[in-house]
């Protein structure tokens, strides 16, 4: 389905929970979060109702996120039910990788096509610092497990932060020389907890690129979000996602469903449309979702306002 600006909206990102087993500094408060009541969170069968309606409207790509989606019991069953929908061509997850190694085989059998793993550092001490409670070794083993199983491409999401991991760029680059992975460096965004560190930690990918002439842009690589580069002879690739300095709103093809049942047509908009009230009325659910897609905003305004308009934190949206 096309929105009012002519963009083909075919991608639905679904936050199945706001809970997480890590406490990354740009995403979640150190003390954790106030847990929502069970009745406030969409059950998997309710999520599936929305997925089925979305498929009829032209959604063919679904990504399950959190929080951390793998803390949810029976996430593999939700993936399996989604995979049976004829119009859904691609099912993926975004995960911190802590639980992935043990679950990857069952997830693939259920119908999972690929994974995005959040990983901001390759240093054990820094990893514990940024996640507050994480174990880097588990994440690295999860990456290896996914590659072994053929869950490709394995994409690594790395939020680039000045003074924290910008000095590790070469280490990440070397990882792509030996492993067939795609490391995507994402600009820090002024949203949620990220606002607290944004001014001192923000860094543009252009600043990184000018110091690495060995990176060659892949001209024919199609991506609505990332500019792709590669080192000659490397097995993997490097991508840069720049929502602030080089925004890609004109090519945005996604909407987001929160775990409480609201549609966010734009990550940085405060606008949310409540679908939960229509879950027992397919016609109203379809019409409301159709209108939400059609009314998707043209763009965000981070470059002018220097802060996201979103009233939700990143762990409530799923990125």
TrEMBL record:
Residues engaged in binding GTP: 13, 63, 94, 155, 254-256
EC number(s) given by UniProt: 4.1.99.22
Positions that bind [4Fe-4S] cluster 1: 20, 24, 27
Gene3D superfamilies, A to Z: Aldolase class I
Catalytic activity from the UniProt record: GTP + AH2 + S-adenosyl-L-methionine = (8S)-3',8-cyclo-7,8-dihydroguanosine 5'-triphosphate + 5'-deoxyadenosine + L-methionine + A + H(+)
InterPro entries associated with the record: Aldolase_TIM, Elp3/MiaA/NifB-like_rSAM, MoaA, MoaA-like, MoaA_NifB_PqqE_Fe-S-bd_CS, MoaA_twitch, MoCo_biosynth_MoaA/MoaC, rSAM
Family matches, as PROSITE patterns: MOAA_NIFB_PQQE, RADICAL_SAM
Any Pfam family: Radical_SAM
Cofactor: how and how many bound: Binds 2 [4Fe-4S] clusters. Binds 1 [4Fe-4S] cluster coordinated with 3 cysteines and an exchangeable S-adenosyl-L-methionine and 1 [4Fe-4S] cluster coordinated with 3 cysteines and the GTP-derived substrate.
The keyword Iron belongs to this UniProt entry's keyword annotation: yes
CDD domains, alphabetized: Radical_SAM, Twitch_MoaA
Keyword Cell inner membrane: no
Function: Catalyzes the cyclization of GTP to (8S)-3',8-cyclo-7,8-dihydroguanosine 5'-triphosphate.
Protein name according to UniProt: GTP 3',8-cyclase
The encoding gene: moaA
């Amino acid at each position: 389905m096309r929105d009012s600006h002519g963009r083909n909206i075919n991608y639905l990102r679904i936050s199945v929970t706001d809970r997480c087993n890590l406490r990354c500094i740009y995403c979640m408060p150190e003390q954790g979060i106030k847990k929502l009541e069970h009745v406030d969170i969409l059950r998997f069968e309710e999520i599936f109702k929305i997925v089925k309606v979305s498929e009829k409207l032209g959604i063919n790509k679904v990504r399950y996120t959190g929080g951390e989606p793998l803390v949810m019991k029976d996430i593999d069953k939700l993936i399996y039910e989604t995979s049976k929908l004829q119009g859904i061509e691609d099912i993926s997850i975004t995960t911190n990788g802590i639980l992935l190694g043990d679950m990857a085989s069952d997830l693939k059998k259920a119908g999972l096509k690929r994974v995005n793993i959040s990983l901001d550092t390759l240093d054990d001490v820094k990893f514990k610092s940024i996640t507050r409670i994480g174990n880097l070794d588990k994440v690295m083993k999860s990456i290896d497990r996914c590659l072994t199983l053929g869950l490709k491409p394995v994409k690594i999401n790395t939020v680039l932060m000045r003074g924290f991991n910008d000095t590790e760029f070469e280490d990440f680059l070397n990882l792509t020389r030996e492993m067939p992975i795609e490391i995507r460096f994402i600009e820090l965004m002024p949203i949620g907890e990220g606002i607290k560190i944004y001014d001192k930690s923000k860094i543009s990918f252009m600043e990184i690129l000018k110091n690495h002439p060995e990176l060659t842009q892949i001209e024919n690589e199609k991506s609505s979000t990332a500019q792709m580069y590669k080192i000659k002879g490397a097995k993997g690739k490097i991508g840069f996602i720049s929502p602030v300095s080089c925004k890609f709103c004109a090519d945005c093809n996604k909407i987001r469903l929160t775990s409480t049942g609201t549609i966010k047509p734009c990550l940085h908009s405060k606008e949310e449309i409540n679908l939960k009230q229509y879950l027992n009325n397919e016609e109203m659910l379809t019409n409301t979702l159709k209108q939400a897609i059609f009314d998707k905003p043209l763009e965000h305004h981070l470059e002018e306002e220097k802060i996201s308009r979103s009233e939700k934190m990143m762990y409530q949206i799923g990125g």
